C-alpha cells in the first residue's frame, strides 16, 4: 500500500494535504473537465463558461501542487492558460461561414 509521504521534502505549507486528498481533487477536476469537454464538442452554451471556470480551478490546484512537482505543475498551468484562451476566443458562428 502506498504511503502518503512526499519524496522531496521542502518547506511546510499552510495548505499541505496528503496525496490521497490531492489525488481526489485532481480526479474530480478531471471528471468534470471530461463532462465539460463533451459539452463543448456538442456545442452546449453552458460548456464555454464552465470550461473557463474548470481550467481556472485547475490553475489554482496546480499552483498549490507546485512545491511537490514543479515541472509538471508549470506544464499543466500553461496548458490551462491555452485552454482558457482558446475557449474564450472561439467564435462558433465564424466556423460555419
Automatic annotation (TrEMBL):
Keyword check for Transmembrane: yes
Superkingdom assignment: Bacteria
InterPro entries: DUF7144 (IPR055568)
A Pfam family the protein falls into: DUF7144
UniProt KW Membrane keyword: yes
Keywords: Membrane, Transmembrane, Transmembrane helix
Transmembrane segments: 22-41, 46-65, 71-90
Domain DUF7144: 2-91
Full protein name: DUF7144 domain-containing protein
Organism in which the protein naturally occurs: Gordonia amicalis
